[in-house]
Amino acid sequence: MRTDTIPTISRHDYQPYPYRLPHVALEFDLDPLQTRVSSRLEFERVGNVNEPLLLNGQDLVLESVMLDGQTLAPQAYRLQDETLTLFPTKASFTLQITSLCKPADNSSLMGLYVSGDKLFTQCEAEGFRRITWFPDRPDVMSRYRVTLRADRMHYPLLLSNGNLLESVDLPDGRHQAVWEDPHPKPSYLFALVAGDFACREQTVKTHGKRDALLQIYSDRGSEPKTQWALDCLIRSLQWDEQRFGLELDLDRFMVVAARDFNMGAMENKGLNIFNSAYVLADKDSATDAAYRAIEAVIGHEYFHNWTGNRVTCRDWFQLSLKEGLTVFRDQEFSADMLAHDLSGAEAASARAVKRIDDVSTLRIAQFPEDAGPMAHPIRPESYQEIGNFYTATVYEKGAEVIRMQHTILGETGFRAGIDEYFRRHDGAAVTCDDFVSAMESVYVQRNPGKNLDVFRRWYSQAGTPRVKVDLAYDAEAHTCSITLAQHNEAVGIERLQSPVLPKPPLHIPFALGLLDQQGKPLPLEHDGKAAETVLLELTEERQTWVFENIAHKPIPSLLRNFSAPVIVDIERQESELILLAQHDTDPFARWEAVQELATRQLLCLTRSISDERQSDIASGLTETWKRLLHDPNLSAAYKTRILSQPTEKELLEKTSPMDPAAVVKAGKHMREQLGRALAPDWLDIYRATSGNDDAYRPDPLSSGRRSLHNLCLHYLMAAGHPDAQPLAVAQYYDATNMTDRMGGLSALVHFSDSPQRQEALNHFYEQWQQDPLVIDKWFALQASAPGATVETIKSLMLHPAFSLRNPNRARSLIFQFCMNSLQGVHTPEGYAFWADQVIALDQLNPEIAARLARAFDNWARYTARNREAIRAALQRIQQHPTLSRNVSEIVSKALK
Ligand code: 0A1
Ligand code: ZN
């Protein structure tokens, strides 16, 4: 499709649907080659005048249309490319439509598709229209009754949303199941699954003493790997009852694992469909990180049952209403699971580990997005293809915007706001503004005369604001003034407007602490209370706060717990950062100080590499690192975060122009130097953290220990320490769980070119070739290794286990290389390879292709050499004659 013919949909053009559709009955004659879908839709006019009735459909063959029992002649309706329009003359009527779709030909994995020998659906955002003609928009909510018929031998299990009403055998070797969902829902939450599955199940009592049957379905043979997912689901139910008072509203809740899936998982009502990567785990095949990811995704989809399904989005511009809120909820769930059984500083440190990981994700994925051609507010203003707006901005920044409301209102205030939100909107399709209004009803009670008008701008402003901090100390008056000034530069299409309009200030909750020169926290008076951390609410461009009774010039600890998604600018001495690194009582800000120290060093190295100068790392950094490594009060999980270098991608964002080659060299140099300078320490800690992993558990304590163990090994390998390689080899072969095994293997793959590297890779493949999720790791590791080149990737693509059609496999090899192998991809051949793959993937799966197409969104900020080569590659993609709407939108925005 050509860019100029793709319509742009604008938020302001929203019109309510002119009909209600309270009841939907669907009948499926399932067959992978050709499935017949018959629908019975009972419409009721909303207003008093007859309006055209518009239905969406895509890649369907229309067989018949009946209105109130009468077959319509083709002249009685208008059938266009992707719409079917009828012209009803009555206030209520029944439409019956029969159509065909072809699941086996559907490589987009949207709508009804085949994965292995099974059938699955994916309807969000606009996949239902590939199943049948329908008002495929989230504000049309209906009760569904679904009849599924299929061959009994190939599809012994037939699942859909809600409750099973009937299951009968039919005479011709087929069988039939009838499902009814008691809850009205939009079409994007519809699901069906057909095939042969193993099931693990458990019945639990809800808070209200109802029985709920929880089921995890997976490929036969993989049932030993579903216990963790079921445990996570049970904990999700309990957590949502305890923390939010939200109880499961179904008798049966099913999770089904699919091998081919575009995203992580999908919250279809009562029938969640998951990428198998977020369901299957056992100690031999899954790493600690995979266990945690499963917990997060199981939680996320379960929490959608209220935030997304009971209250849904009025239109797709409101996507962050459900996604931002649900990401916030899953982040809190994971943090609570990490801090379980802990209290005080230990609990705070455990929660900080999760916060650090989430903020790192935000900075790596969302900050660049917010500075590039795809920059958009968390509630976008327009789109060409909604599939392109399942972004880090809508999800991760959206969660930060919810978190700020939590920070401003506090836990009890936020809970009161959530209660009010459900009281007002349960069962409805609403907007982001409705959510803020519910929160505001609590805010105004507690802050008479104030409101959230300024806060609402977070929903309409793109870009990462910068907050400049100035500290002025008055030695005579013993006062310390803190001035915060905010600025949010024009980004994305805003820059193309003339004149470029300045953006009004935002409501920024800014958590601050002050330390004395010895690093002791100072009690601060604010809003009539004394506390170690105060929350400054910046609502104007510039504001000053004065703190009294401060005996000496203090050291500020800024944006504690990352209280707002902003960039802080402050001029400060390295000695202040070193003090914060040792003493800050806020574990997030402490980590941040160490990261800032390391970033400064890395940027300095990058510059010296660009100027071809030799440079060593400062002793202050190694000493700080050493002290932290031996600090008995820090948990292993926290130490792993605080002693990890900032990633290449974070650093790249901070270079101008962006110079991938220099960034890679600087990172390597620093790792080597830190490895060498602290070699005896890494070795000691490596030994001290080897555990008896016969009794493997993915609990926070032991997984923290394993992460530190692996970090030590990496530094030792980077340093070329003589003991490192034998340790890595031994760790790889002797491991009794996948975390240790991967730690050993990745140390070899990343840092060694000895024959043992290839031997271990071969051994790994031999051992695990039957397990696709493990083989994904095998591909990913090689694709992201520093030495990976286009040739490496092309030869791996010829491996019999590679397929472009399976999203997990494409992600593990192609995406890993294009997005994470800075050294390999930032070459003329790398860019050409990337363009070829975007084009090839686009013919199969536009959603996945469009994600790959975003690899170099920020191409205009690279050094001239890289810039020109990327532009040429982008132009080549754009000129391809059969580009999808998805990829077309991405490349045309990148080239504007
Ligand atoms: N709502 C899901 C995300 C999702 C979106 C689109 C999909 O298909 C293209 C699949 C899943 C979630 O937030 O988990
Ligand atoms: Zn979600």
From TrEMBL:
<dbReference type="InterPro" id="IPR042097">
    <property type="entry name" value="Aminopeptidase_N-like_N_sf"/>
</dbReference>
<dbReference type="InterPro" id="IPR045357">
    <property type="entry name" value="Aminopeptidase_N-like_N"/>
</dbReference>
<dbReference type="Pfam" id="PF17432">
    <property type="entry name" value="DUF3458_C"/>
</dbReference>
<dbReference type="InterPro" id="IPR024601">
    <property type="entry name" value="Peptidase_M1_pepN_C"/>
</dbReference>
<feature type="domain" description="Aminopeptidase N-like N-terminal">
    <location>
        <begin position="33"/>
        <end position="189"/>
    </location>
</feature>
<keyword id="KW-0378">Hydrolase</keyword>
<protein>
    <recommendedName>
        <fullName>Aminopeptidase N</fullName>
        <ecNumber>3.4.11.2</ecNumber>
    </recommendedName>
</protein>
<feature type="domain" description="Peptidase M1 alanyl aminopeptidase Ig-like fold">
    <location>
        <begin position="463"/>
        <end position="569"/>
    </location>
</feature>
<comment type="similarity">
    <text>Belongs to the peptidase M1 family.</text>
</comment>
<dbReference type="InterPro" id="IPR001930">
    <property type="entry name" value="Peptidase_M1"/>
</dbReference>
<dbReference type="InterPro" id="IPR037144">
    <property type="entry name" value="Peptidase_M1_pepN_C_sf"/>
</dbReference>
<keyword id="KW-0482">Metalloprotease</keyword>
<dbReference type="Pfam" id="PF17900">
    <property type="entry name" value="Peptidase_M1_N"/>
</dbReference>
<dbReference type="Pfam" id="PF11940">
    <property type="entry name" value="DUF3458"/>
</dbReference>
<dbReference type="InterPro" id="IPR038438">
    <property type="entry name" value="PepN_Ig-like_sf"/>
</dbReference>
<feature type="domain" description="Peptidase M1 alanyl aminopeptidase C-terminal">
    <location>
        <begin position="575"/>
        <end position="896"/>
    </location>
</feature>
<keyword id="KW-0031">Aminopeptidase</keyword>
<feature type="domain" description="Peptidase M1 membrane alanine aminopeptidase">
    <location>
        <begin position="228"/>
        <end position="443"/>
    </location>
</feature>
<dbReference type="GO" id="GO:0008237">
    <property type="term" value="F:metallopeptidase activity"/>
</dbReference>
<dbReference type="InterPro" id="IPR027268">
    <property type="entry name" value="Peptidase_M4/M1_CTD_sf"/>
</dbReference>
<keyword id="KW-0479">Metal-binding</keyword>
<dbReference type="Pfam" id="PF01433">
    <property type="entry name" value="Peptidase_M1"/>
</dbReference>
<dbReference type="GO" id="GO:0016285">
    <property type="term" value="F:alanyl aminopeptidase activity"/>
</dbReference>
<keyword id="KW-0645">Protease</keyword>
<keyword id="KW-0862">Zinc</keyword>
<dbReference type="InterPro" id="IPR035414">
    <property type="entry name" value="Peptidase_M1_pepN_Ig-like"/>
</dbReference>
<dbReference type="InterPro" id="IPR014782">
    <property type="entry name" value="Peptidase_M1_dom"/>
</dbReference>
<dbReference type="InterPro" id="IPR012779">
    <property type="entry name" value="Peptidase_M1_pepN"/>
</dbReference>
<dbReference type="GO" id="GO:0008270">
    <property type="term" value="F:zinc ion binding"/>
</dbReference>
<dbReference type="GO" id="GO:0006508">
    <property type="term" value="P:proteolysis"/>
</dbReference>
